[in-house]
Write the structure tokens for this entry.
Amino acid sequence: MARKGFVLFLGLFLAFVFYSLLGNLEPDLVLLLNTFSIFVLFSALVYGEVEGAAMGTVAGLLQDAFSHGVFGLSGMSQTITGFLAGWLSRRLNLNTFYKRAVFVFIFSLIQLLIWVAFYFLIFKKSLLYSQAAIYFQPVFTAVATSSIISFYRKITKAA
Amino acid sequence: MSFFRVVKNKFFIVGFLVFFQLLLISYQVPLGSKQTFLEKILFLMFTPIQKLAVNSHRSITERWGNFVGLRTAQKENQELKKQIFFLTQEKELLRQTFSLSLAKREVEEELKGLAEMIVPARIIGLDTANYYRSVVIDRGSEDGVSKNLPVCDKFGNLIGRTAGPVGHHEARVILITSEESGVAVISDSDKMLGILSGDGQGKCLIKYVLASSPSGFEGDEIRTSGFDKVYPPGLKIGKISSVSARQGIFKKIVVQPYFDFRQLKVVAVLKNKEISR
């Protein structure tokens, strides 16, 4: 329990630090690699639906706090995605890198769609025209999340 | 089913979390750009971490850069000496111009005052949803930064204004390229007045110029007019890149801002809105 708490806390911290550093390196990287999404999907796939939803709320609200938009929008999309990804991952065999990457790609896309749909409902404006980099976000999220989970499992096995 | 079993149910947990987010959204939407207490708390809690991470990274890359760039340092040094020479000349010329209308002591105070009105700041964070919307700077209330102060790039071109939440050493800046921004502007040649707003894609639009109006042509320079009482008059913004009259009764005037987002590392917060050019 304590270890899980530590991993989740560290994950959130790292997601935030990487988001800050990516923006400092190149602005487009912030959109290509949504570190908060990566963290939420990691939590959901490794620990399950409840952890996925809880971390979705925390990471999503943190993401909202650093965006001049509606507070709660990313929180909502990340919570729903975290829960659904965690719940479905328990019912599927996701032991290989590729299967996991495809699964994460689909859920990253769902997260993006929920976010865009809610934004459109509130502002009657679509976010999809803002930057082209946003279209590639699910691909990069899928590769990064699947790689991190593989790495994490190797570490925990070795330990 | 007992209360504790209901609370432990995973669908109850996710339902509660989604309900909580909906509450936050419904509370936030009528507030507009104002921040809720929870948002302010999260922002103020995490900006010191962001500042530390970015500054550490900068420090490491700068040290590495210094090490690698030792060879070019001499050449750069010569260039800088040349620049210092010209800048000193320029400063003296300005001093002389000032002294024509003011006494020496007043000139010194004026120049000292100008330096005190500017707060240099570094950008430490970008907007998570759209980086053309807002940035986070490493200066806050303890450095004299408050809400609604104009912010310029190192060449004096307007980039936006400060907005809440303002922490002790951190603040958010709403960029002029944000759809939520609004700047009262005037064109250089035909003195066309309008409201400049961002398109969220790196460009700006001048709104409410009638299609029948002869004003507005490509290449014209746009500056702040000062009528909004937020931005001082005369700050450079950009140039008109296209004009079309397709959107109903108003013209569509697109402005290409002068500031380059990728070169935006250091900015200047103008503490006194009375500064004008």
Q: What stands out?
A: The two ends of chain A are 16 Å apart (CA to CA).
